[in-house]
Design brief:
mainly alpha; about 80% helix; globular; about 475 residues
Length: about 475
Amino acid sequence: MSAAATVSDRQRVDKRLFTVRTIATLGGLLFGYDTGVISGALPFLAKGPSEGGLGLSAFQQSIVTSSLTLGAAFGAAIGGRLSDRYGRKKNIMTVAVIFLLASLGCALSPNYAVLVCFRFLLGLAVGGASATVPVYLSEMAPVTIRGTMVARNELMIVTGQLLAYSFNAFIAIMWPRAHVWRWMLVICSVPAIALWIGIHLLPESPRWLANKQRIQEMWAVLNEVRMPDEVEVEGKDIVRRVEEETRIGSGSWSDFEVPWIRKITLIGIGLAALSQLTGVNGIMYYAPTILETTGLGTRAALVATIANGVVSVVAVAIGIGFLKRLPRKRMMIIGQTGVVASLVMLGFMFLLQASTVRSYLVLLFMLTFLFSMQCFIGPTFWLMLAEMFPMRVRGLANGVAVFCNWMGNVIVAFAFPNLIAAVQGNTFFVFAVINALTLAFYVRFLPETFGHTLESLERHFEEKYS
């Protein structure tokens, strides 16, 4: 093959993978916007009907917030199973439709009960996206760029959160009218339409196609997204692994009775749940509320919250660079150490006398917390979940793990504002203890997935945990 042909092939493959990544990660953007937008909408939802709000109490605000995360838990469990049965592409397409309908429903909600129902429906889409998009990206990516390609989804999640914070602040300051929260919530419909249109342009996962015995289509997709000298080796390895699993039988719940599959799934569940018990989404959902308790006004708190989004985006971008060089387990341990230290410092800040200086010190340690989380843990744990599970139950096992991730999110979303109201800054000491125990879990049990193909990881885990 000539050098010119090689360069041409590389440009063709890079362009196709860029298209795949850009369109598929719109699911992450929607995930991020919908989880972040509520932080700015809550102060206006708390206002009475005469001021355009719904008069929500603190308890009702926690229900509105956690209804999405509860829906996401079930969306992840259901979506993972459906993506195994009907395909990653079709599942993402369905998720896009739910995003659109639910975001419009939230924006038009006439009362608290309807808003909670549509937030739950929106959560189904968020959970479905969180369980499907990383798996789709990991199965489409060559092993050399799998880490950075899957991590792009985390970058889009935090970009969506940054956009939510920015639009919240802009709308609140520049257009402070009644029902302002409705405009915050409706913006999500635009990328939902883009995702639905764009996903039609993408191929199905080659590994899912092989698992459904659609071998010719698998080869066609691999020829789209791999260099010519990579296609045969990877394709034969996929087919060989599918044949091995076909002899065992189709993937189902009974597969979790196999010791090595059960063990790696339990580790994945621990990784998924504990990454939420960092308390990260307590800070992301309630940042303005936290800052208001330190003495900042509502608008000042909304503007200050933009810093959370900026730091998260920058941190994930830096983390993607680290993923090219650092082992996954080391990334998790570094990030978890920073999370514990930041939570301890946040707790101490609330012991100081109330002042503007204290408000900005609280913001500072919120930012160091988010940097540790989003630079090291955020990109890595989604990637590891997409890598760890065997192909025969990848969607199902990933769905179970992401379900547990979202249930952890439900606990945090519901408990955080009530803990802040009850014990103020001591809330952060509680989370510091939880995260110190999480650090010990990672050191003891977390496996390494860096530098392996998905098929070689299956064989490695089968040998290690049998």
